Amino acid sequence: MAMTAVARETVFALRRQIAKIEGTLPERLQAPAAAAPDVRVDAGPSIDVTIVRRGIAAALPDAFLPTGVERLDAALSGGLPKAALSEIHGVETRDAGAVSGFALSLASLILKQTQGLPVLWIGTSEIFREAGFPYARGLHASFGIEAEQLLFSEAPKLVDALWVAEEAARMTALAAVILEIRGNPQRLDLTATRRLHARAQSAGRPVFLLRQAAEPEPTAAPVRLIVASAPAVPRDTIVGPLAGSIGRPAFTLTIGKSRTALPGQFTLEWNPDERAFDERWGEERAKNPVAVVSLSRGRKDPAAASGAVLAFPAVGSPAAGDQPPQGQRAAYLGPRRAG
Q: Could you give the CA distance from residue 253 to residue 221 in angstroms, rounded to a whole number?
């Protein structure tokens, strides 16, 4: 019995050490008085259960930012952690608009809960040249964000952007911090993300790391979401879908990493009127799996397939007016160059 107690204390000590390395602490919670009948308990009536939830210090009811999509929130155990670093990835450069739009949607949800506090968006000169800035007039129309609620910090180098992000992440005067980075720079390593995660935990504010055209790599973020644009469906009216129209902006969301959820994929639509996400279901998701080019205006059918295209007429020689200049005639008539 003594050996069992010693072994248990050794396991707890190792767990504490691992949690310290990862930047979190294990929470010791009291087991419920009425245990489930199918759970076998070998100890006394009162049992200490160690629950280690990496990425947040305590799983309180208000510790998550719910997206409003029931299946997604259930997969994430309540939503995105508020006091933590969360990664939002775009696999390719062309996904930058979708990643930024999804981040603005999250900012809109956060600003509903923290009235009067702004969101700080940090990026390097390179990323803002490549991906651009959010359109100021569209902030209020699509996300309900006023111009003074979204602050920007453009840093000349990545080291400067990381310094600004670390200082801003510890401030409680901000509703959230968004750091946008391109690619997989060496300075954005596990140590740098641990510092951002620790400061987010200390301030109780979310830090969103937008990774444009980046490959997944180890970070301290407990959640990684991969975002891409999804085809929009026709606008819905009281009489049905409006043919030829473009509906709400849509995102394909993949849970790339989560310490509480299994990988999964969702198709979300952002409702700019309600300022909320909706999940797209069934045939709407599979009807248009890839973006297609619309038909020509005023035509019912696509253009017919073109015939064979030849560099020179198949039979006969060129007309007199089509003869090449005298200086090019030898090259024109001569054999092809080998190699």
A: 17
In the prediction, which pLDDT does 4 show?
63
Task: Specify whether the CB–CB gap between 64 and 86 falls below 8 A.
Answer: no
Distances (CA, A) of 116 to 146, 150, 218, 260, 274: 11, 11, 35, 32, 20
What is the predicted pLDDT for the residue at 290?
Answer: 46
Length of the chain in terms of residues written: 339
User: Mean pLDDT for each 10-residue chunk of the chain (339 residues)?
Assistant: 63 66 42 37 35 44 88 91 95 93 96 91 92 87 93 95 96 96 93 96 95 92 95 84 86 90 88 93 50 49 55 53 52 46
Distance separating alpha carbons of residues 336 and 169, to the nearest angstrom: 65
Angle formed by the axes of helices 96-113 and 136-143, to 10°? 60
The DSSP bridge partners found for residue 223 are: 86, 258
Sign of CA dihedral 90, 94, 100, 106: negative
Contact 303, 246 (CB under 8 A): no
Q: Three-state SS for 18? A: helix
Given a contact cutoff of 8 angstroms between Cβ atoms, the answer to whether 227 and 102 are in contact is yes
Q: State both tokens at 61.
A: 């009811």
> Quick one: 177 exposed, middle or buried, by C-beta within 10 A (0-12, 13-18, 19+)?
buried
Cα–Cα distance measured from residue 209 to residue 224, given in angstroms and rounded to the nearest whole number: 9
